[in-house]
Design a protein that fits this description.
12 helices; 10-stranded parallel beta sheet; alpha/beta; 379 residues; TIM Barrel
Length: 379
């Protein structure tokens, strides 16, 4: 049975001397995981840009002026090609991301279900991050062969309000519950380096650890500050902060796969090695994570060779989802879920939005309208 953690207990672990913390985390890691085995995953943006949310870290938000070009949903053949390339480069999981606020029961979602099925049939673990989902939508994804649903909490509930105003923290928790009710595995983590303090990081871990069963995957991201976003001038989290966060996550959620995610380009090989020692057991491969830079596959392979790490195979537990053809049945009456819009003002987000408006006027730039999948060439 999973331990019910008190906030004070997590705080005491987080604040341990780092050398003791890493030793304890490494000990826990070896109890529940093969310390040499690391899952290599690939993150693929199947629909880029044009997101209506105001997440302060995200270059895909339509309201900010970044160098991200909005793209339509990828075609089935494009995704299959990308999945095969990922598989050949050593990935055992493909996570498909679409810059949506929430899933709608429409042609675009029907298309994503076919993408999920196609990747499942290639033998890869399939993860998706599509925004908020209802329980019925999550069940359709599961029937199409989805293995995991990603929906990050990002930070503590208290600091979350300083980063995002267009959706509520409870919506994220409800989405995770909907995915869990659909028998999907959960992937949910956060970002450090957004200006939060240690107490916020502890609060994030407390929120994640209180989900039962605990998420099967917890990505730990270091903020990649992108020009044009509200957090463009934010100082990067140090490697010591990343190691501390990874180690605490490992101890508090011992069975979870801790994913060393965004921000690895700023980490030395030695820093990443410390994260693996502290309990990280997954990386995202490829030169891009959705829209931000990432180490290339050869660099990662060299690191694996140096450290003696081996890639984990897909569906190690033998739990590959089977396809249930009823995923094709679109509900006659879509669920009337009202996702929240807190609507409070975050000053730096408003400043970035206004700067974007001025930049677009100066450049004569208009945000590109993204058409639906009905116009995507499947040939």
């Amino acid at each position: 049975m999973e331990k019910i953690w008190k906030l004070e207990e997590i705080r005491n672990i987080y604040n341990k001397p780092l050398i003791e913390l890493v030793f304890e985390a490494a000990t826990v890691h070896r109890e529940y995981h093969d310390p040499r085995e690391v899952q290599v995953s690939t993150l693929l943006s199947i629909k880029t840009g044009g997101c209506p949310e105001d997440c302060g870290y995200c270059p895909q938000a339509a309201r900010y002026h970044t160098d991200i070009e909005a793209n339509d949903l990828m075609s089935l053949e494009q995704v299959k090609t990308a999945a095969k390339d990922a598989q050949e480069s050593g990935s055992s999981r493909l996570c498909m991301g679409a810059a949506w606020r929430n899933v709608k029961d429409d042609d675009d979602f029907d298309h994503v279900l076919e993408l999920v099925r196609a990747v499942n049939e290639l033998g890869l673990e399939v993860c998706a991050t599509l925004g908020m989902v209802t329980e019925n939508q999550a069940k359709r994804l599961a029937k199409a062969g989805l293995y995991a649903y990603n929906h990050n909490l990002d930070s503590s509930e208290e600091y979350y309000k300083e980063v995002i105003s267009t959706r509520g923290y409870q919506d994220r928790l409800d989405t995770l519950e909907n995915a869990r009710n659909a028998k999907l595995t959960l992937c949910s983590g956060g970002i450090i380096g957004m200006g939060e303090n240690a107490e916020d990081r502890i609060g994030l871990l407390a929120a994640l650890a209180s989900i039962h069963p605990q998420p099967e995957s917890v990505p730990i991201n270091a903020l990649v500050a992108v020009e044009g976003t509200p957090l463009e001038d934010q100082k990067s989290a140090s490697i010591w902060e990343m190691v501390r966060m990874v180690a605490t996550t490992r101890i508090v959620m011992p069975k979870t796969t801790v994913r060393l995610s965004a921000g690895r380009t700023e980490m030395s090989p030695e820093g990443q090695a410390l994260c693996f020692m502290a309990g990280a057991s997954s990386i995202f491969a490829g030169d891009k994570l959705l829209t931000t830079p990432n180490p290339d596959c050869k660099t990662d392979q060299d690191l694996f060779d140096t450290l003696g790490l081996i890639p984990q195979k897909a569906y190690k537990k033998g739990d590959k989802p089977s396809i249930d053809e009823s995923y094709k049945e679109r509900p006659e009456n879509s669920e009337k879920t009202k996702w929240s819009r807190p609507g409070h003002t975050i000053e730096r987000n408003e400043e970035a939005k206004n700067k974007a408006k001025e930049a677009r006027k100066k450049d004569g730039f208009e945000p590109r309208k993204v058409s639906s999948v009905s116009s995507v060439d499947e040939s």
